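Dear support,

I submitted the protein below through the web form. The confirmation email said the job was done, but the results page showed an empty box. After a refresh the structure appeared. I'm attaching both so you can tell me whether what I see now is the final result or a partial one.
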Amino acid sequence: MTSRGARLTRQPGGLATNHLLPNNNNMATLWRLTAAAVLLTLVSAVDRSNFKTCQQSSFCKRHRAIKPGESPYILLTNTLSVTDEGIFGDVLNEKNRVFFTLEIYPLKDNTLRIKINEKNPIKQRFEDPYALTGDGQSETFEVIDRSSDGFIVKFGTNRAIVKAKPLKIDVYNGNELVVSTNARGLLKFEQYRNKPESDVQPAEGEEHGNALPLGEEEDTNGLWEESFKGHTDSKPHGPSSVGMDISFINSKHVYGIPEHADSFSLKETTSTEPYRLYNLDVFEYELDNPMALYGSVPVMISHTPRQSAAVFWHNVAETWVDIKKLPDSNVVSSIAGFFSGGDSDPPQVSTHWFSESGIIDLFIMLGPRPMDVFRQYGALTGYTNLPPMFSLGYHQCRWNYNDEEDVQQVNENFDNHDLPMDVLWLDIEHTDGKRYFTWDQNKFPHPLEMTANLTARGRKLVTIVDVHIKRDSNYFFYKENHDRDLFVHTKEGNEYDGWCWPGSSSYLDLTNPETRNHYSDTYMLDRYKGSTLDTFIWNDMNEPSVFNGPEVTMQKDNIHPGLGVEHREIHNVYGMLFHQGTFEGLLRRSDGRLRPFILTRAHYAGTQRTSSVWTGDNTADWGHLRISEPMLLSLSVTGITQVGADVGGFFGNPDSHLLSRWYQAAAFQPFFRAHAHQDTKRREPWLFDAETLRIIRNVLRQRYQYLPLWYTLFYENELTGAPPMRPIWVDFPEDEASFAIDYEHMIGSALLVRPVVDEGATTAFVYFPPGIWYDVLDLTAFSGPSSTTVSAPRDKIPVYQRGGSIIPRKDRVRRASSLMRDDPYTLSVALDSNGKAQGTLYMDDEHTYDYRQGKFLYLALSYENGVLTSKKIDPFGTYETGSWLERVVVIGLKKRPSKVTIQSASLGTRDLESFFESGTGTHASHFTIRKPGVSMNEAFTVTIH
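What the results page shows now:
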């Protein structure tokens, strides 16, 4: 379910511009009439006029108007001080004589933090306390070559050269310049000030609590208030934006800053809108443009054959990012010529970041390899917690399953048609009048029995809980929060009243710890009646979506009493606070024993700690299938790794070909959920023709076969930050041919996946990175680097196992993953050109936190010189699994072996059954070893003689 609310702003009668809420006596009638009109109106695409352009955003216009090379900000080197934590000094804006503070913190693991703030603000600037898991561990450093021109700080193998006039910071990894800040002189920091009572301007150098001197602001529109479609945003402290340019040296490609429906390698924006980061409810979003969507992760990664680096612009206010690719001799200075003024002109991607409020708080992560960057960023904002196994299976959702009988029929039909499924979802209609934590007593009178029928088949239930709370004094959750004054306020101090699915709604003030605590406690089973430990949660509409608000969201000058800040200060993190509260609630209800599963639409840096994400309200067309690949890659490389897109498209009716291709793509993406709008035709797989049902069944079975691989990759994701779904260049960092590819991806380092996303296509163009690649179905072998067109009939998605890898599978597919827990394993051993292969396998109970107490197995699998071995990677992990080794398939073996033996502590040494099938033409040979029979608990050796 979801941004259907945006439709409200498109209706006749002034709703798009009416920002005055009617009184509660008229609200119910007006809401019912409006909602009926909304649901009867089908809209073909997003109405872009509901959302701001840069020209309609005063601070965006001001930052874009800055002329390069005229920066007025200088470091006052005589104010420098050095402590064990960092370097501190004052910065002066020579144009208006306003002072700022500069803080530089060298951190462990090749990371540098740079902060710029007002020195004497009339009001404390907001600094986000939510994204970081810690400030980072300080690195030892040394300040050298200090003079009036600047200084150099050395930390680890890195250095930062700080130039005083104008302020500029060049950051090096070894001797290679990687990132340069304020190289183009676009730094701008608008200080808080008091609104002038007249047009009289203060004298030069007067305290900045007064208005700025004439000439400082090129455009005075929007400094103290600005309007958009009938909504007026007041700014009691005037303009407060911050911005700076950040250049990635020797780079041609940058990635990240989700969420946008655009290419993975980010485009230049010199002749378009900047990329916007502002969480918004945008349904049927347009493709291939930089419009803001549901989430904002201000992280950008640069990758070159020699160097990976990333920046985290730690700011939760509305943010825009411009991208310019240029060789510019005025941008960077070499080490040798720094103090003498010499220049160099490497190619680079120059980016310009500007946020409406907050401070400049920049983390620079210097890699130098992709895996290093993922680890460095994870150390700052956290890693994805190992999800429960069921969440990696297949999810079935619709707005809405009508009643308990409908749920039961869908549940049974998955079994009747031999289709595995792990989770069934309920949208907003399961509640009592859109009152969350309740049930419609007519349609869902027995939720405990309904859930028990699911869990009896090994399945789970997900229900939806949205952030808007129906204003009804007889609704327990509204009354509790209202009585405690835990809702967001208007600027006048009243409880904010906005429109969403329940009609008149209030919104939780999630900056208040008491609010979050009370919200989390509502998930206790004695409060959320009808839920069980097998009920998991979907947080939607949490941007927050406000149907009659500016840009379908909350007014920026609303007040969050918990922190005493305007909504503009915390907008992009609001949704994350909601799903973090959900996570805490699910932890509490099981006394911290069971792993939660949550899906969120709104997200920010750090969301990965507590929730999975989907790409929102997509459409049943080939373009939306195509764009899901780059969108998911962008999320994955910026830390949010359990991600997916609605299978089949949320809006519209996919034909059988589109639907089957979408199932194929999603089966090889991290989060796999089918979902549909209530106005669409029912589209459960058995409602299509026999061929489509067969294709969907086969690809669902493929998904479940590869669950051990996905689960192992997510365990490693928690350890290192390495995303399970990743671009090719992560594992082939020197392969420049892959840098712009976003139509295929890797699963770990072992599988290459090329979804078919073109209507009517029966072939696919595949790029193979260096090495040998084996088709997982027919074992056709390909050598890379190369590109070729492969056969891709309707019933096949091209997937290839990398030579040199070992993939664990479970080939006995059952109705749900929980029923496969103790099933045996098959090891697929694909040999490289040297006859070697390696892999890993992780096992635990798949749903509790016992693995953090050592109850797990993490195994290294290796094949070399005809010998396959399994041994523990972590000797402290122990888990008594019922799983055993059922089969080993060795792909690419050159000749038929004479015999095979296995050796382990329990089996001793014994011969094994096997058979060899020679390859023909481009098809590789394969050698199958049957029933080794050894427990996966044991170290073992299989020898091919």
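Response: this is the final, complete result; the empty box was a page-load delay. Residues 2-44, 199-217, 328-343 have pLDDT under 50 and may be disordered.
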